[in-house]
Amino acid sequence: MVAFTLNGKTVSVEADPTTPLLWAIRDHVGLTGTKYGCGAGLCGACTVHLDGKAVRACQTQVSEVAGRTVVSIEGLSPDSSHPLQKAWIAQQVPQCGYCQSGQIMKAAELLATKPKPSRAEIIAHMDGNICRCGTYNRIISAIEHAAKEG
C-alpha cells in the first residue's frame, strides 16, 4: 500500500511498488485525464506534477511518490479556471486533444516558476512534449496568453 496526496486528497494505492504512477492514477484512483502516450517517457502525454515539478508519470514508480504530493490535470483547478485552461480554449489549441493535459501540466510548471516567460523560454521549456497534430504554434500562443492574463 502506497499513500500519497493526489490533487489535495490523501489516497492509498494497493499496487506493486514498481507500478508506474500513470497506472496508479488511472486504474487505481480512476482519474483518466493523465494520458498514456508512449510508455517510455518520450512524449509527455502523462505529465503530472510531483512536489511542484513536472514528471512523466509513466516513468515514475508509485513507490517514489509515497508521502509526497502529486497534482494531475484534474487537480490543476477545481473548475477548469486555471489561466492555462482558459487560454487553451481561447486559442483553440486542441485538435485531437490527446496530448493536451500533459502540455498544460508542463506549461503550468513553467508559469509557476516564471510567470512572464519569453517566447524562447516557452519553446525551450516545452521541448519534449510532443503533439502529433502539430498544434505547437497554438500551444505557444496559449502560454503567452495565460502569462499576460496571469
Give the topology string: H per helix, E per strand: EEHEEEHHHH
Q: Give average pLDDT, whole number.
A: 97
The helix count comes to 5
Total number of beta strands: 5
Biggest sheet strand order reads 2-1-5-3-4
> What is the CA-atom radius of gyration, in angstroms?
15 Å
Percent range for helical residues?
25-40%
Q: What general outline do the C-alpha atoms trace?
A: globular
Spatial gap, N to C terminus: 39 Å
**Proportion of residues in β-strands:** 5-15%
Flag low-confidence runs.
none
Note the main sheet. 5 strands, mixed
- What structural category characterises the helix and strand content? alpha+beta
Concise structural overview:
The chain is α+β, with helices and mostly antiparallel strands.
SSE layout and pairing:
Elements lengths: L1 E5 L2 E5 L7 H9 L17 E4 L2 E4 L12 E3 L11 H8 L9 H14 L5 H8 L9 H14 L1
Parallel strand pairs: 1-5
Antiparallel strand pairs: 1-2, 3-4, 3-5
Helix pairs in contact: 2-5
Question: Would you give an account of this structure?
Answer:
The longest helix has 14 residues, at 100-113. Helix content is 35%, strand content 14%. By secondary structure, the protein is an alpha+beta fold. It has 5 helices and 5 strands; from the N terminus they run ββαβββαααα. A 5-stranded mixed β-sheet has the order 2-1-5-3-4, sandwiched between helices. It has helices spanning 21-29, 83-90, 100-113, 119-126, 136-149, and strands at residues 2-6, 9-13, 47-50, 53-56, 69-71. The model has no long low-confidence stretch (mean pLDDT 97).
